[in-house]
Amino acid sequence: MTSRTTTGSAERWLVLLSVCLAAMTMPLTFTGPAVALSRIAADLGGSPIELNWVTNAFMLTFGATLMASGALADNHGRKRLFLVGLSLYILASLGAMLAPDIIWFDIFRAVQGIGSAAAFAGGASALAQEFEGPLRLRAFSFLGTSFGIGLAFGPIASGLLISAFGWRSIFLLVAALAIAAAMLGLRTIRESRDPDATGLDWAGAGTFTIALASLTYGVLQAPQSGWADPLVVTLLAASIICFVAFVVVERQAQRPMLDLTLFAYPRFVGVQFLAAAPAYAFVVLLVLLPIRFIGIEGMNEIKAGQLMICLSGPLLILPMLAGQLARWIAPATICGVGLLVAAAGLVWLSLTPPVDSALMAPLMLIGVGIALPWGLMDGLAVSVVPRERAGMAVGIFNTTRVACEGVALAIVMATLSGFAAAQLAAQGMASSTDAAAAAQLLVTGNLGEAAQHLPQAGAIVLVQAYETAFDRLLIVLAAITVVTALVVFLGLRRVSASERETAALPACQEG
Length: 511
Prior knowledge:
The protein is mainly alpha-helical.
């Protein structure tokens, strides 16, 4: 049992409202700067790699600290960590709004990620204590829908704010929402913790954070410096060494931050693949598409935001419907079919010309495919461990999800840059070095500077090279999504004897 006071029926729904309100701010923080990237670059300057960190700094620290945050929530109190995380998030948002240059902006983005991780881990594990059985599934479905609201309206809200008040207003909005969530949580959330907790696994947290940071930094640096560059090689080698050290530390720890024995359960493995699935099929598009629409295709922020609603809008409704469908259809089937639908949408998008009306249908199909498993993810994550370890379960699942999103974004941007550079070099427009430099500028949506860098190519040739590279990238993402769908389907259907003894959500059981 966890040390907690039972919350009244009405009050626990206010707890859910507080956590959902906080969760809504996080996708706004993720999608908003992608829409504003060209404006941020114009105001604060920055090289292509510094502009890449506008998004990656947040994703990296969010993913790297989420598992440690789950352990801290179990050890020191879920309400306490929720409020501390929101406070840090609010201060970092205000700092980003007032940042004088791109370096300070990236630093505050990194701090935002740490605050988001603490708030999310504390809030989600608090929810697991307030709700049980089918009600817990409903609560986490609401949580998924809250993310969907932030994703659906984030781009268009950001576009409207940027047009009316400038890009800094995005951070004022998310700070205001976080303040409201903190005030409500302060009144309604009851403190709870794991009485068997023995303290934070500092060695595990440290090795994991360094490994993830080194991997992300190395992948981001590679397109600019080359994969054989000593710095890139050192960073990638450090990531491998630290990941190995993390596994060794966790196997020897009495109460590890990540219980590696859980990977003996097929459904647990399937849940982790499910956590990674949206990274390549959906999340990277939330960053790449606004950059393409605004920086390459020349749309304004409002038009780009309207198109992005086609992609993320299905997350407003379908996660709740998927939660209801799980009463009659196995979650493995819902998740597997959803990912295959998303893969079909990616292929369709690669064959579609960049015309507003033509883009809407494939974007919507991708959104529908991702929305089906989206509402089941968090409920599945907490169903494979005892309730007392809810913080660890939330931490592991969301660390996998966010870490994969951050790493996927870095890899995908590097891949897109490589495809664009190869396309430019193949046309004989530039040397491989000049083509790589121009491709880096294109990936950040800086078409004007890329045209100045390669005046012999011209804007039309640069746009064609970028679009061809983007289409090739979409096919690669579709292939990855198909493979992931098969692994998730097979993994979630296999239930070991040990897992049958674990208390699980009704909707997470097969049959």
